[in-house]
Write a structure and sequence with these properties.
The complex is a heterodimer of chains A (151) and B (363). Chain A is α+β, with helices and mostly antiparallel strands and 151 residues long. Chain A has one domain. In chain A, 44% of the residues lie in helices and 26% in strands. Chain A has 4 helices and 3 strands. Chain A has a 3-stranded antiparallel sheet. In chain A, helix 1 runs antiparallel to helix 3 and helix 2 packs across helix 3. Chain A starts with a helix and ends in a 13-residue tail after the last helix. Chain B has 363 residues and is of the alpha+beta class. Chain B folds into 2 domains: 74 residues, no CATH class; 192 residues, no CATH class. Chain B contains 13 helices and 6 strands. Chain B has a 4-stranded antiparallel sheet with strand order 3-4-5-6. The chains are: A alpha+beta (151), B alpha+beta (363). Chains A and B meet through helix 1, strand 1, strand 2, strand 3 and helix 4 of A and strand 1, strand 2, strand 3, helix 8 and strand 4 of B. Chain B: Keywords: Transferase.
Amino acid sequence: MKDTVDEINPRKAWMSVLAKASEGRVAQLLDAAIARPEFAWLRAPEIGSTMVRARAGATGAPFNLGEVTITRCALTLDTGEVGHAYIKGRNKVDAQAAALVDALMQTDKAEVLRAQVIDPLEAEQAAAKAARAAKAAATKVDFFTMVRGED
Amino acid sequence: MYVAVKGGERAIENAHAWLAEERRGDTDIAELSVAQIREQLSLAVNRVMAEGSLYDPDLAALAIKQARGDLIEAIFLIRAYRTTLPRFGASEPVDTGKMTCDRRISATFKDLPGGQVLGPTFDYTHRLLDFKLAADGEVPQAPTRSGITAEDVPHVSEFLNREGLIEGAPHDDTPPPDLTREPLEMPADRALRLQALTRADEGFTLGLAYSTQRGYARNHAFVGELRIGAVPVEMEIPELGFAIEVGEVTVTECETVNQFKGSKTEPPQFTRGYGLVFGQTERKAISMALVDRALRWEELGEDFVGAPAQDAEFVLYHADNIQATGFLEHIKLPHYVDFQSELELVRKLRREAETGHVQEAAE
């Protein structure tokens, strides 16, 4: 029997990386890697919202914080694989590129796309986070105690 | 009472055309782009997203441009747009413990794991006008500090919790009520109050929070922790049956630590107020936490001392600036018939009073 967790986790990971890519980046990397295959829409890109929830006191009961704009779409390749995209923001072109990569990651193109789309995106996202973290670290307070004169 | 009146169409059209011209201002001055507003007036953008209750910096920047910088008008535009969006679902509750913090400070513990990280703050600036900004926009690069491995940044309340000195916030998965779907009704549970407060007017929330500090429902708050940063938003994809990250949102979180004398059932311990707001919105998040704490008097077994900040009905029904401005500003719209009847009434009363005087004089 196939381990379903193994099948789900990598997909969850790459879909998350694709969703967090900056504007136009997925399309750019995808087009540099391979020629786009034919596909049919299962759900043409549409813009909507998701209610972001949080927890009272960070860990308690959930409450509704506010909505975020989301673009989603679903498509199927001629070979039958289905790709989905749910990405923050209102960019239908980005959603299409993300769904295409999601579908192609289930084909024999996976290795190429892993190396040329997913891994570079992940590295860029990590680098951007690290750059911001380094600026935050520079504002970290180093306390020192003044030596007091009495004694 | 409103009566359909014809006329005024041309005046209205011309007023709107003039509005557009005034919005643009002097055409010898370069026009502001939406991207410039998004990048350079980002705290205004954050406020519009928080109170508009929709996280989308580009839309908020556009709204600010269209509203000529009137932030409540911009929030109104965002709220109106929001109602046109189909709702795809709700996210998993965001885990602020996983926040990549730009800023994280505690007023209660000096040396805490993760440290005091100031971030891009106005604190400690001298509040002197910087005329260099009027001259050119050149900024030096912010210094960086490397070699620091990513540390866990635990919530401050966890330390106090270990000693049992602070009330817990036990895990709970009750689906929250949503005031954008059901009208806000009293009594409002904490989840509903927090939703109303996070989108509440910043000025109103600040004023109420300040009132608790000055002695109206005093509960002496310390900022246990204040953190600003990005948190991933995870959402279950119905077609796939598992959750993915759909992106990140920047939020400001404030946890206050408040005095509590204890009650019949609870030993003396610290209690908590909670603020969480979209964007870098520190003043609002602290205000929210103070008002949240004041509104919790009943569940903590405290007395209602009649303070405005304790009165959920007063707070929640007056905190929304779009509701408030809608009702406030409608009184400038034509009320000709209403006023005619008032006019008639006053004339009648005066006539009666005058006849009365005449009669009294005759007697």
